[in-house]
Amino acid sequence: MSQPNQEQPWMPGPDDMPWTTYLINPHGDRHLGFNEDEGRYYRLWQHKAPEPLHTGDAIFLRPSDIDQIVKYAMIWVRNHPDNPRGYKLIDEMAAGAKGLVMHFAQAARHPTQG
CA-to-CA distance for 46 and 19, rounded, in angstroms? Predict the structure, then answer.
């Protein structure tokens, strides 16, 4: 039985993916889409509209895909040099990467007892 806040596994179909760039999790949860028009990541849900995410939240949602998240963002910034969203996207990406590194550094200093 799943916990109330736990996402049920599902795989997005063509109607669930309004953009061209996606990070689909093989476990069936925590799917991301990247809106190239806006330069913004979105969390994909099975039964509700895509949710816009701060890039740092996208990194925390999918830490194993940080390389792809950074690459998509940097390509977007390079292709939209005059768009003010680029500065925000870079700041969000840096904050997310720092937060993730700090989280794991703290966890390494204080491992949980099991």
Answer: 16
